[in-house]
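Record type: monomer structure entry
Structure origin: computed from sequence
Chain ID: A
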Amino acid sequence: MVFGWLKKKTKKAADKPSAAPTSSAAPPPPPAAQAQPTPPPLAASRPRAPWGPEDDIAANQAIGGLRNFLLSALKTERGIQAETLLVAAGALTGYSAIHAVFEAYLKRGRAQIGDAEAASTGNAIVEVKGKDGQTYYLGDLINSFLAASAGPVSRPFFVWGYLAGIAINSGVLAAELPDLNEMFKHAASTVGSPEFGIPRMPPNLKPMLTPRQAVDRLWPAVRTGLARIEGPGPGGRGIDVEHWPILCAIAAQQLINQTKGVMDVKVALRLVMESAIFMSKIDPRSVPQEPAPAATS
């Protein structure tokens, strides 16, 4: 299997892609601040994920299941194309954020669709119609799942922390990380245009799926996997939909690590994060939620 194309290559062992971690356990928490070159020392009691230890079995199963599903679903006769894998992982991570906003906030009465003023309080998201006729959603509440946010929407765990963390652990200096604010501005400025949803990358990279195509094709199966109940006890345990973006981020983090033998980590990080930001703005009601019925003969 090749990453790059993920195929077997006659390279030195040091040049081979890193193997996926043997455990899907949650990684160390994100760096406390982007300006720091390395994460600060961790307090022994600091949690590593937004769920408690009683949910670790379910979380580990969901993360490993998602990672392995993507490796299987995107495999072709030639192997696995790294850029397609990373675009898909990022797209699903971003889409899980807007899905979480609708399922864990709007449907539970914790937020509503409102105007920009209401959105600034963290209690609403803004609905906009693009020139392409599609519906998009903006707001700090959505963005808080993806990046560090201040004020009422602040949360201790967010996608960028996990993704930037793997880059820093791979030797990338914090000052060399892709410009996160610029990526958000680019996504917002292209809403409704042909440029929206197309992550920027070197010309030699040609993913076989756009982020939106990846979401439409893969989300029904991914949703089923994330909603699965696992673990001991009469009813088992599942991870609340509000935490699905972190499950997806950890799987994406592992895939960045697995592909770094054939792709620059900074390029991989931008591919994943731009895909995530784009897909966090689409209308979740326009995405298939259930797998298509099996064809009958």
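Annotation 1: The first strand starts at residue 75 and ends at 76.
Annotation 2: Residues 100 and 242 are 5 Å apart (CA to CA).
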